[in-house]
Write a structure and sequence with these properties.
By secondary structure, this protein is an all-beta fold. It folds into 2 domains: 79 residues, Immunoglobulins (Immunoglobulin-like), CATH 2.60.40; 124 residues, Immunoglobulins (Immunoglobulin-like), CATH 2.60.40.10. The chain is built from no helices and 18 strands. Strand 2 and strand 3 form a beta hairpin. The radius of gyration is 19 Å and the shape is flat. Keywords: Signal.
């Protein structure tokens, strides 16, 4: 049987550096291992890796690895940086435990990582709901739209989210079991709402979404 818990990560959509946080869920669905990764092997060994939780300093260590318990009642944002280059912080990922009937709201154009945690030794597959039928998510050649890692706990990566990606996903051995632990994905874009004032001289603008974003937006100051 498969656990109804899925560890998820939503990738921040403002890329500040070549650093990235990789997420490795464990089979118990309760702990998650994070790695502060670079696109290539650094010539000079970093003095230390600095970890941030919810934008606040967590700790620093020579190792790029970090492990922590996750619970179903909260989500936490993690990021990392290399000591001496704190301004080049990796984009944050949001980590939490998804239970039965969980929902994710993501911004159009962003990327999404869903990591599967299973209690069985059989390698599960990813499925998505097409109408009323669960169909397997397949990787089409060189297409970067969907990528699935080749391991015992496959991670589904969806890039360049569009409104067409709005559906339910599940990680399981058989599609007929998907009703047990679906993940409902909603994709939203930004819209400006206008609130004029009674004096006719000023106006209030609000940047809004159609659903509450799972990942808190991170805006660069320009």
């Amino acid at each position: 049987m498969f656990s109804t818990k899925l560890v998820f990560a939503v990738v921040g959509f403002i890329l500040n550096s070549a650093l990235q946080v990789k997420v490795f869920p464990t089979t118990d669905g309760q702990t998650v291992t994070l790695m502060c990764s670079t696109a290539c092997t650094l010539t000079d060994r970093p003095a230390a890796y600095i970890w941030y939780r919810n934008s606040e300093l967590l700790y620093q260590n020579w190792s790029p690895w970090y492990q922590e318990m996750v619970t179903s009642d909260k989500t936490v944002r993690y990021s990392c940086a290399i000591k001496g280059y704190e301004a080049l912080r990796a984009p944050a990922v949001t980590v939490g435990v998804l239970g039965k009937g969980s929902s994710i709201c993501a911004l159009k154009g962003t990327s999404l990582n869903l990591s599967c945690s299973a209690e069985h030794s059989t390698i599960p597959k990813w499925f998505k709901l097409d109408g009323t039928k669960w169909t397997e998510v397949l990787v089409n050649g060189n297409s970067l739209k969907h990528q699935i890692s080749k391991d015992t706990h496959p991670t589904l990566s969806v890039t360049g989210l569009t409104k067409d990606d709005k559906t339910s996903y599940c990680c399981n051995e058989k599609p007929e079991n998907c009703h047990e632990d679906p993940i409902h994905l909603t994709v939203t874009d930004l819209q400006v709402k206008v609130f004029p004032t009674t004096d006719g001289q000023t106006v209030t603008l609000m940047c809004s979404t159609t659903c509450t974003l799972t990942e808190k937006p991170n805006f660069n100051k320009g």
